[in-house]
Protein backbone atom coordinates (compact mmCIF):
# COMPACT_ATOMS: atom_id res chain seq x y z
CA UNK A 1 0.00 0.00 0.00
CA UNK A 2 2.77 2.48 0.99
CA UNK A 3 4.76 1.65 -2.13
CA UNK A 4 1.85 2.44 -4.44
CA UNK A 5 0.51 5.51 -2.62
CA UNK A 6 3.61 7.18 -1.13
CA UNK A 7 6.54 5.52 -2.87
CA UNK A 8 7.87 4.07 0.40
CA UNK A 9 9.74 0.77 0.05
CA UNK A 10 8.01 -2.16 1.73
CA UNK A 11 11.23 -3.23 3.52
CA UNK A 12 12.10 0.22 4.82
CA UNK A 13 11.87 1.06 8.50
CA UNK A 14 9.22 3.76 8.92
CA UNK A 15 9.55 6.20 11.85
CA UNK A 16 6.76 6.14 14.40
CA UNK A 17 4.50 9.15 14.87
CA UNK A 18 3.70 10.17 18.43
CA UNK A 19 0.42 11.81 19.37
CA UNK A 20 2.11 13.02 22.56
CA UNK A 21 4.64 15.13 20.74
CA UNK A 22 7.67 16.77 22.32
CA UNK A 23 6.06 20.17 22.90
CA UNK A 24 3.21 18.48 24.81
CA UNK A 25 5.55 16.43 27.00
CA UNK A 26 8.10 19.12 27.79
CA UNK A 27 7.80 20.49 31.32
CA UNK A 28 9.33 23.89 32.04
CA UNK A 29 11.63 24.05 35.07
CA UNK A 30 13.32 27.24 36.21
CA UNK A 31 16.68 27.49 37.92
CA UNK A 32 19.31 30.19 38.39
CA UNK A 33 22.14 28.39 36.57
CA UNK A 34 24.60 30.40 34.52
CA UNK A 35 24.39 27.61 31.93
CA UNK A 36 21.29 27.93 29.76
CA UNK A 37 20.26 25.92 26.70
CA UNK A 38 17.25 26.22 24.41
CA UNK A 39 16.31 23.06 22.51
CA UNK A 40 15.23 23.39 18.88
CA UNK A 41 13.05 20.28 18.84
CA UNK A 42 13.19 19.68 15.07
CA UNK A 43 10.45 18.03 13.01
CA UNK A 44 11.74 14.54 13.82
CA UNK A 45 12.16 15.26 17.53
CA UNK A 46 8.73 16.84 17.77
CA UNK A 47 6.73 14.10 16.06
CA UNK A 48 8.85 10.95 15.61
CA UNK A 49 11.32 10.74 18.48
CA UNK A 50 10.44 12.98 21.43
CA UNK A 51 12.08 10.49 23.82
CA UNK A 52 15.60 11.31 22.63
CA UNK A 53 15.03 15.05 23.02
CA UNK A 54 13.66 14.45 26.53
CA UNK A 55 16.71 12.31 27.39
CA UNK A 56 18.97 15.18 26.30
CA UNK A 57 16.95 17.56 28.45
CA UNK A 58 17.19 15.21 31.46
CA UNK A 59 20.98 14.92 31.10
CA UNK A 60 21.37 18.70 30.81
CA UNK A 61 19.19 19.31 33.87
CA UNK A 62 21.14 16.66 35.79
CA UNK A 63 24.17 18.88 35.13
CA UNK A 64 22.37 21.96 36.46
CA UNK A 65 21.68 23.48 33.05
CA UNK A 66 18.51 25.51 32.65
CA UNK A 67 16.62 24.19 29.62
CA UNK A 68 13.88 25.72 27.52
CA UNK A 69 12.13 24.38 24.44
CA UNK A 70 12.06 26.80 21.51
CA UNK A 71 8.45 27.60 20.69
CA UNK A 72 6.75 28.39 17.36
CA UNK A 73 9.50 27.13 15.07
CA UNK A 74 9.56 26.04 11.45
CA UNK A 75 11.58 23.21 9.85
CA UNK A 76 15.35 23.86 9.77
CA UNK A 77 15.16 23.65 5.98
CA UNK A 78 17.58 20.76 5.35
CA UNK A 79 15.07 18.61 3.39
CA UNK A 80 14.21 21.56 1.13
CA UNK A 81 17.88 22.40 0.63
CA UNK A 82 18.61 18.83 -0.50
CA UNK A 83 15.87 19.28 -3.11
CA UNK A 84 17.41 22.57 -4.26
CA UNK A 85 14.48 24.66 -3.02
CA UNK A 86 16.47 27.55 -1.56
CA UNK A 87 13.46 29.86 -1.64
CA UNK A 88 11.69 27.69 0.94
CA UNK A 89 14.93 27.32 2.92
CA UNK A 90 15.19 31.09 3.34
CA UNK A 91 11.47 31.41 4.09
CA UNK A 92 11.76 28.85 6.88
CA UNK A 93 14.86 30.57 8.24
CA UNK A 94 13.04 33.90 8.39
CA UNK A 95 10.33 32.29 10.52
CA UNK A 96 12.93 30.83 12.89
CA UNK A 97 15.03 33.95 13.35
CA UNK A 98 12.74 35.78 15.80
CA UNK A 99 12.25 33.01 18.40
CA UNK A 100 15.90 31.91 18.21
CA UNK A 101 17.37 35.41 18.41
CA UNK A 102 15.16 36.24 21.39
CA UNK A 103 16.68 33.32 23.30
CA UNK A 104 20.26 34.08 22.21
CA UNK A 105 19.83 37.64 23.44
CA UNK A 106 18.73 36.20 26.80
CA UNK A 107 22.01 34.28 27.04
CA UNK A 108 20.85 30.85 25.87
CA UNK A 109 22.96 28.51 23.80
CA UNK A 110 21.02 26.60 21.15
CA UNK A 111 20.88 22.85 20.55
CA UNK A 112 19.03 20.28 18.43
CA UNK A 113 18.77 16.49 18.84
CA UNK A 114 19.36 15.86 15.12
CA UNK A 115 22.87 16.49 13.62
CA UNK A 116 21.38 17.62 10.29
CA UNK A 117 19.52 20.46 11.98
CA UNK A 118 22.59 21.55 13.97
CA UNK A 119 24.62 21.51 10.74
CA UNK A 120 21.96 23.55 8.99
CA UNK A 121 22.12 26.38 11.50
CA UNK A 122 25.87 26.18 12.09
CA UNK A 123 27.11 25.90 8.52
CA UNK A 124 24.55 25.89 5.74
CA UNK A 125 22.28 28.83 6.57
CA UNK A 126 25.18 31.21 7.34
CA UNK A 127 26.51 30.43 3.85
CA UNK A 128 23.16 30.66 2.08
CA UNK A 129 22.18 33.86 3.91
CA UNK A 130 25.67 35.29 4.32
CA UNK A 131 24.46 38.90 4.61
CA UNK A 132 22.06 38.15 7.46
CA UNK A 133 23.77 39.03 10.77
CA UNK A 134 21.10 37.33 12.89
CA UNK A 135 21.63 34.01 11.11
CA UNK A 136 25.36 34.28 11.79
CA UNK A 137 24.71 35.00 15.47
CA UNK A 138 22.30 32.07 15.74
CA UNK A 139 24.83 29.77 14.07
CA UNK A 140 27.53 30.77 16.53
CA UNK A 141 25.19 29.95 19.43
CA UNK A 142 24.35 26.43 18.15
CA UNK A 143 25.89 23.36 19.78
CA UNK A 144 25.86 19.65 19.11
CA UNK A 145 24.59 18.00 22.35
CA UNK A 146 27.89 16.25 23.11
CA UNK A 147 29.90 19.27 22.07
CA UNK A 148 28.03 21.11 24.82
CA UNK A 149 28.68 18.36 27.38
CA UNK A 150 32.41 18.60 26.65
CA UNK A 151 32.13 22.38 27.04
CA UNK A 152 30.71 21.74 30.52
CA UNK A 153 33.55 19.30 31.17
CA UNK A 154 36.14 21.94 30.27
CA UNK A 155 34.32 24.32 32.61
CA UNK A 156 34.75 21.72 35.35
CA UNK A 157 31.01 21.34 35.96
CA UNK A 158 30.13 18.14 34.06
CA UNK A 159 29.14 15.38 36.47
CA UNK A 160 31.25 12.30 35.71
CA UNK A 161 30.00 9.93 38.41
CA UNK A 162 28.80 7.47 35.78
CA UNK A 163 27.69 3.97 36.74
CA UNK A 164 29.42 1.01 35.12
CA UNK A 165 27.89 -0.28 31.87
CA UNK A 166 29.49 -3.60 30.98
CA UNK A 167 28.26 -3.79 27.39
CA UNK A 168 29.66 -3.87 23.87
CA UNK A 169 28.22 -1.06 21.77
CA UNK A 170 28.68 -0.14 18.12
CA UNK A 171 28.84 3.65 17.87
CA UNK A 172 28.18 5.16 14.44
CA UNK A 173 29.44 8.72 13.94
CA UNK A 174 26.74 10.47 11.89
CA UNK A 175 27.89 12.13 8.65
CA UNK A 176 26.19 15.44 9.42
CA UNK A 177 27.93 15.52 12.78
CA UNK A 178 31.36 14.76 11.31
CA UNK A 179 31.17 17.62 8.82
CA UNK A 180 30.58 20.08 11.66
CA UNK A 181 34.34 19.71 12.31
CA UNK A 182 33.93 19.51 16.08
CA UNK A 183 35.86 16.28 16.59
CA UNK A 184 34.60 13.10 18.24
CA UNK A 185 32.85 14.78 21.16
CA UNK A 186 30.37 11.92 21.64
CA UNK A 187 33.18 9.38 21.88
CA UNK A 188 34.95 11.53 24.48
CA UNK A 189 31.90 11.55 26.74
CA UNK A 190 31.09 7.85 26.22
CA UNK A 191 34.70 7.01 27.08
CA UNK A 192 34.07 8.38 30.58
CA UNK A 193 31.55 5.57 31.26
CA UNK A 194 33.29 2.73 33.15
CA UNK A 195 33.50 -0.72 31.49
CA UNK A 196 31.81 0.39 28.26
CA UNK A 197 33.29 -1.45 25.27
CA UNK A 198 33.05 1.05 22.41
CA UNK A 199 33.47 0.20 18.73
CA UNK A 200 33.53 3.42 16.69
CA UNK A 201 32.51 3.44 13.01
CA UNK A 202 33.01 6.51 10.80
CA UNK A 203 31.25 5.93 7.49
CA UNK A 204 27.88 6.67 5.92
CA UNK A 205 24.89 4.64 7.11
CA UNK A 206 23.16 5.10 3.75
CA UNK A 207 19.97 6.45 5.27
CA UNK A 208 20.11 10.19 4.51
CA UNK A 209 16.51 10.99 5.41
CA UNK A 210 14.06 9.94 2.73
CA UNK A 211 16.81 8.22 0.70
CA UNK A 212 16.58 5.26 3.06
CA UNK A 213 12.86 4.73 2.59
CA UNK A 214 11.99 5.65 -1.01
CA UNK A 215 11.27 2.81 -3.44
CA UNK A 216 13.85 4.01 -5.96
CA UNK A 217 16.69 4.46 -3.43
CA UNK A 218 16.12 2.05 -0.51
CA UNK A 219 18.14 -0.75 -2.13
CA UNK A 220 21.13 1.58 -2.47
CA UNK A 221 20.69 2.79 1.12
CA UNK A 222 20.91 -0.81 2.32
CA UNK A 223 23.99 -1.47 0.17
CA UNK A 224 25.75 1.62 1.57
CA UNK A 225 24.86 0.76 5.15
CA UNK A 226 25.71 -2.97 5.01
CA UNK A 227 29.44 -2.59 5.85
CA UNK A 228 28.41 -1.01 9.17
CA UNK A 229 25.62 -3.52 9.79
CA UNK A 230 28.11 -6.37 9.27
CA UNK A 231 30.10 -5.06 12.23
CA UNK A 232 27.19 -6.07 14.45
CA UNK A 233 27.65 -9.50 16.00
CA UNK A 234 25.88 -11.63 18.58
CA UNK A 235 28.12 -9.89 21.14
CA UNK A 236 26.80 -6.43 20.23
CA UNK A 237 24.44 -5.15 22.93
CA UNK A 238 23.47 -1.80 21.42
CA UNK A 239 23.85 0.35 18.33
CA UNK A 240 24.40 4.04 18.99
CA UNK A 241 24.23 6.92 16.53
CA UNK A 242 23.87 10.67 17.04
CA UNK A 243 21.40 10.40 14.14
CA UNK A 244 18.65 8.14 15.45
CA UNK A 245 17.36 7.51 11.92
CA UNK A 246 20.80 6.23 10.87
CA UNK A 247 21.12 4.05 13.97
CA UNK A 248 17.70 2.51 13.45
CA UNK A 249 18.51 1.87 9.78
CA UNK A 250 21.78 0.10 10.68
CA UNK A 251 20.08 -2.10 13.27
CA UNK A 252 17.19 -2.82 10.90
CA UNK A 253 19.41 -4.14 8.07
CA UNK A 254 21.63 -6.18 10.39
CA UNK A 255 21.41 -9.98 10.48
CA UNK A 256 21.41 -9.75 14.28
CA UNK A 257 18.54 -8.45 16.37
CA UNK A 258 19.84 -5.43 18.25
CA UNK A 259 18.40 -2.22 19.63
CA UNK A 260 19.50 1.25 18.47
CA UNK A 261 19.35 4.31 20.72
CA UNK A 262 20.83 7.81 20.84
CA UNK A 263 24.14 8.01 22.74
CA UNK A 264 22.60 10.55 25.11
CA UNK A 265 20.07 7.92 26.17
CA UNK A 266 23.00 5.73 27.24
CA UNK A 267 24.53 8.64 29.14
CA UNK A 268 21.22 9.05 30.94
CA UNK A 269 21.34 5.38 31.91
CA UNK A 270 24.95 5.76 33.07
CA UNK A 271 23.82 8.59 35.36
CA UNK A 272 21.27 6.21 36.86
CA UNK A 273 18.39 8.33 35.58
CA UNK A 274 16.87 5.62 33.36
CA UNK A 275 17.32 1.88 33.79
CA UNK A 276 14.82 0.67 31.20
CA UNK A 277 16.38 1.30 27.77
CA UNK A 278 19.15 -1.34 27.96
UniProtKB/TrEMBL annotation:
This is Fe-S oxidoreductase-like protein in Rubrerythrin cluster. The keyword Cell inner membrane does not apply. One of its GO terms (molecular function) is 4 iron, 4 sulfur cluster binding. Coiled coil: none annotated. InterPro entries: Cys_rich_dom. Pfam families: CCG. Residues 37-122 form the Cysteine-rich domain. It comes from hydrothermal vent metagenome. Keywords: 4Fe-4S, Iron, Iron-sulfur, Metal-binding, Repeat.
Amino acid sequence: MLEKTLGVHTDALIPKYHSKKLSKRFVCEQNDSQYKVAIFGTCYGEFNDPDTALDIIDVLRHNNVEVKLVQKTQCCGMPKMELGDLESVEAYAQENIAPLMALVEQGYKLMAPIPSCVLMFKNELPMIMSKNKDIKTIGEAFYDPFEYLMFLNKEGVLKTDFKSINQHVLYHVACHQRVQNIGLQTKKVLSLIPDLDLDVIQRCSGHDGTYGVRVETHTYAVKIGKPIAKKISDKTDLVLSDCVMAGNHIAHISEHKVKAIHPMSLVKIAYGLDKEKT
